[in-house]
Design goal:
Blueprint lengths: L1 H42 L3 H15 L6 H27 L1
Length: 95
């Protein structure tokens, strides 16, 4: 009986999540792209953009059943690329 009484509250929360979730994800993706593009421009290395695109593809793959393992592998590759990119940016800063 309690579940039936809570159903409108659950559905409204789910509807809100389905409405605002993709909008927030799109805003985060746009901001993330701008940040990585600026870092790539400043450092002269495209590794920042590669890391962003691999990370974005990995997030999308994690929503599929068969892509979960590929998605996690993509996360690791993206983090390694970011580490290498920041390492190179650190060396650039010392010059």
């Amino acid at each position: 009986m309690g579940i039936i009484l809570l159903m409108p509250a659950i559905m409204s929360g789910l509807g809100t999540m389905l409405l605002f979730g993709p909008m927030i994800a799109l805003i985060v993706a746009i901001c993330g792209y701008r940040i990585h593009a600026e870092l790539a421009r400043l450092s002269g290395s495209s590794l920042f953009l590669w890391a962003f695109w691999i990370y974005t593809a990995s997030v999308l793959l994690c929503f599929s059943v068969f892509g979960i393992f590929v998605g996690f592998a993509g996360f690791i590759i993206a983090w390694v690329l970011l580490f290498v990119a920041w390492w190179g940016f650190k060396k650039l800063e010392k010059r």
